[in-house]
Design goal:
The chain is α/β, with parallel strands linked by helices and 126 residues long. It has two domains: 37 residues, no CATH class; 82 residues, Restriction Endonuclease (3-Layer(aba) Sandwich). It contains five helices and six strands, in the order E-H-H-E-E-E-H-E-H-H-E. The strands form two sheets. A four-stranded mixed sheet has the order 3-4-5-6. The protein has a two-stranded antiparallel sheet with strand order 1-2. The longest helix is centred in the middle third of the chain and has 16 residues. It is elongated.
């Protein structure tokens, strides 16, 4: 998903839902510098995004609170799926790998409606 950003918050809000080419054009019209950006996900099919996260734990938060949310707000998906190792698998992996039970706790701790995208967390065990 491609988009353009700038330093002006009001301008970002006004262009957020527009197609990328319109975003850039409006940012330039306001005398600001457009900065190209994008989000990509591992897999999208039939309005479902899937992220497999066997990397570092910090990337799970980015997946849940940025990637899935951006695709949902951008009307590209209806649900995000995050696939994580269960603790039983994570304990056999290198340090810093996230695990299902811990990330489930983190999502529940945020409260209902956060992040504001329907999610399915899937745990994989050995």
């Amino acid at each position: 998903m491609e988009y353009w950003v700038t330093t002006d918050v009001r301008l970002i809000r006004s262009t957020l839902s527009l197609p990328p080419e319109e975003q850039r054009k409006i940012i330039l019209q306001h005398g600001e510098t457009p900065i190209f950006s994008y989000n990509q996900t591992d897999f999208v099919k039939e309005r479902v995004a899937i992220e497999v996260q066997f990397g570092k734990y910090a990337f799970v938060a980015y997946d849940l609170f940025v990637k899935h949310l951006a695709f949902f707000v951008g009307d590209k998906i209806d649900v995000g799926i995050e696939i994580l190792p269960m603790k039983s698998l994570q304990s056999q992996m290198s340090s810093g790998v996230p695990y299902f039970e811990g990330e489930l706790y983190n999502v529940v701790r945020q409260g209902r409606g956060v992040p504001a995208v329907p999610l399915v967390l899937v745990g994989i065990e050995p």
